[in-house]
Amino acid sequence: MTKVLLIGSPNSGKSMLFNRLTGLSQKVANFPGITVDVASGKLQGMDDVYLVDFPGTYSLKAISAEEKVAVAQFEKALADADVEHVLCLIDATRLEKSLFFTLQVIRECELHDKPVTVLANMIDVLEANNLSIDLPALEAAIHTRVLPISARSGKGLAEISEHIRAARTADRLRQRPHLTGTPDEILRGTAHQLAQRLGPRGDVLVRTQNRLDAFFLHSLTGGVAFFGIMYLLFQSIFTWSTPAMDAIEGSLAWIADGIVPLIGNQVLRDFTADALFSGIGAFLVFVPQIFVLTFVIGLLEDSGYMARATLICHKPLRYFGLTGKSFVPMLSGVACAIPGIYAARAVDSPRKRLLTYMAIPLMPCSARLPVYALLIAAFIPGDTFLGGLVGWQGLAMFGIYFFGMMTALIITGLVSRARKDQFDDLPFVLELPPYRLPGVKPLLRNAFNRAKHFVVKAGKIIFTVTLVVWVLGYFPNFGADLGQSWLGHLGRFIEPLFAPLGLDWRYGVAILTSFLAREVFVGTLGTIFGIEGAEENMVPLVEQIQNSDLTVASGLALLVFFAIALQCVSTMAILAKEARSGSLALKMFGAYFVLAYAAAFLVYQVATLF
Length: 610
Hints:
Layout: E1 2-8, H1 14-22, E2 39-43, E3 46-53, H2 65-78, E4 83-91, H3 95-111, E5 116-121, H4 123-128, H5 135-142, E6 146-148, H6 157-169, H7 184-198, H8 204-216, H9 221-239, H10 242-259, H11 266-284, H12 287-303, H13 305-319, H14 327-335, H15 337-343, H16 350-359, H17 369-379, E7 384-385, E8 390-391, H18 392-418, H19 440-474, H20 486-498, H21 505-513, H22 520-532, H23 541-547, H24 552-564, H25 569-579, H26 582-609
Parallel strand pairs: 1-3, 1-4, 4-5, 5-6
Antiparallel strand pairs: 2-3, 7-8
């Protein structure tokens, strides 16, 4: 199998180029630390060639854990006989930053006798601002072919495959060694001189960025904009997804009304109605909210605002023992804790990386979203104001998200002050990428893939748990009395544990199953209420909860419990692997459960008083 390597610095458009060249849907983000693993895919038009994409790095002298992954894998790949070409991507608008890393890559490729081609990305940005780069002179200076491209518009991408084909038959000695043995200090000076002599003239791009930064990084307007953007993110989860949720709910009800009466076997009919439509169907209704959440976060990342948010958050996060670079892994945890834990590799300081690991499981991830949405829809009025921009449910969602994040900060702050480690902290250094207009098509595709991945991943667990819950709740009396079923006996066994929160055995069972995956809570309740309600009201689980004896105080207690408890086996496994400590994952699981229970009990008692 023939391989071509793709490497470049963060914010150079590398992931977008990889997506275009392979047709895959790798996540694209305008912030260092997003792509943290090596990805590969067939090069379009060349089925016998695999393109291998490495995490972005600023230098082959690695500092952060993310850069160590990139450098170690790149050096290993250069020794692979199947690798026949290396593509090094540079940002043509920031030539000096890109050239130093490029010269390092050329030097390593010379040592391993691998041909390398430099891809000058964002040529369209230069042309739009009447700027240029002297590519022929740059080729002559670095003794390497340089191709002008635009990953966003697609300009020059066809020439890449043609160039790789031509390089197969060309003289392998055409790229004579000229950097072998050259120290980094010389390469840095060479990069500076070449950028000054051959790079784009003028400060148009810098002036444009500075004008926007004057607003978004201002001590007053920047803070207001940050909280406004974060609030709109959470409000959009309800406002934008409601039509799709209603459509899915109506479709499921229509399909159920058509299919269930046609099934002759009573047991199979009950299973289809109670488990499939009431259990799994109740979970599918909330998938549009995951799509919207991923799309909006993608907008923030691709536009370049995420790096500004990181800078804004650095000072307050430092008070809690974290760093501004912890913001992106924590916000990634809003989608899913697992990529957030991977993204924590970008945190340079080992001490702050450990604290970031502790904060990420408390982020309100998309697996919690169906639970939050269910409980908020059941107990919070759906009234909106200002054309749907402001609503009680959006405020409640913002509040529970804010609560989870503040809990994470308080915990890391306490731990950072109580625990004195031998780790040396590294200075906070952050590149502010240019503001760019996000590509809507890649964002929609990524949001769709995230929602699809969530359904496929969670669907297997939910189906298994739903099947078990239905069997336990249906037998031995064939659904005649749920309280006397096997599930009823199990629920009453664990009911004393959750009774202080005002929860009966049904919710106790749902919490118990949710430790496999948080989102199972919704499917389990859907199955339980489906059995209990027979064939009436199969999909709208919210109405059944509203008609049950669950109080508002218990609903708030459940929200708080799910905001804190670590209920994801996959997250614990990845955490143990990344932190190289299984005991850390187990300690966090136990500590967060105790804290979640205590906080939920306190909220229940206070809410009951009012």
